[in-house]
Design a protein that fits this description.
Blueprint: H1 2-22, H2 25-37, H3 43-46, H4 52-68, H5 72-98, H6 106-135, H7 140-160, H8 162-193
Helix pairs in contact: 1-2, 1-5, 1-6, 1-7, 1-8, 2-4, 2-7, 5-6, 6-8, 7-8
Length: about 190
Amino acid sequence: MEITAAVGAVLGAFGLSGAAGLNAWLPLLVVGVADRAGWIDLGSSYGWLSSTPALIVIAVVFLLDLVGDKIPALDSALHGIGALVAPASGAILFAAETSLSAQLPPAVAAILGAVTAGSVHAGRAVARPFVTGTTAGVGNPVVSTAEDGTSLVLTILALAVPVVAFVVIVVVLIGLGWLAFRAARWLRGGRGRG
């Protein structure tokens, strides 16, 4: 049974870190609240996520990011900042999720989380100019809302049904890879004509 818990923790950790690539603050907030409510146990090493000061700071930054990412010019700046924040969030979430069940060294867990969140974030950051260019910015709030919703669903799945979360993150990575490829082709085509 111990191996099942470890595998579930690792699959859930991939889901949480992938969710952090879409919205760095939302999974941190959900995990902190879940630990505070007693729905999950982060253990003493990551219990700080559910402390009142941490929850307040994460909630405020989450709300600022939530609104800012809907504004076409501001979303690009936030994606630049997110290139650092998303991998850090993914590293924390992966390590926190696997700390109690899996026998992964913390450094390995942090690297896996940072790479997963960073890959998802890079895909969305590359695809966003394509959305901005093809919709004159009108599609940005729609795409941002979809990213936030996917991050929330992925976070809940990672905590409740880790196998499904892992499958979803694989699908998200494939989809973002396809969008990044299309965006690169669109940018090359646009430059060739100009």
